[in-house]
Amino acid sequence: MLQALIFDVDGTLADTERAHLAAFNAAFAAEGLDWHWDEARYTQLLEVSGGKERIAHYWAQVNASRADIDGTELRALIDRLHEVKTAFYEEAVRQGAVQLRPGVLELIDDARRSGLRLAIATTTSPVNIAALLRGAMGPDWQLAFEVIEDASTAPRKKPHPQVYQQTLARLQLPATACLAFEDSANGLQAARGAGLATIVTPNAFTAHHRFDGALRVLDSLQGVDVPTLRRWHGEVA
Ligand code: XBP
Ligand code: MG
After folding, report:
1. CATH number of the domain located at residue range(s) 4-15+99-236 in this protein
2. Does 212 participate in catalysis according to the annotation?
């Protein structure tokens, strides 16, 4: 029987990636780097989950031959860039730069009324989740989610299944009692790796990904209610 829904955040609850991209570029400029990611490059870079990992990946692409910076200095630079990026992103979200995707809030409300348990499994930073959901759901947003696993608790980023495995462990539920919601191939792989049936709602940055193994691939969660989810879950349970 379906008992819990587990949501990814970036790209799934909201189209956040344009705001993340603007924050990365603002951080690069603020820190005096001449880096600028356009949407095409960022679409490729999104194949690396996690902001720090994404910066490190880009560094390796453009600066692999630099010998004047050692591993410790590089880690400090990446930490600093990510800290500045997170501050820019949080402020932009606080100012209303990002809204929830269609149908998300309605589904969360329907699930709570129906007694389903809710959780979040994301690679992003805790302050980013709070900025988004406080704005969209109000100051009590945390009451809706029994478990939140994020970059601070699950260091191995998607497509590794760690964040979903830890979410299931904390819910004390088998994967077969849950559905996951994702927007990307990495997210789908992470959820499937933890044994979860997964509903995918791609967005502009992930529309070209392959979603083999998804329970459903939908334009959005608009009109998706709990009875519909129970029916789809019944196909695999
Ligand atoms: C989202 C991410 C995140 C954001 C940036 O992946 O990879 O890194 O792009 O957030 P998913 P941070 O939706 O699969 O969890 O900079 O805080 O990492
Ligand atoms: Mg995502």
Report:
1. 3.40.50.1000
2. no
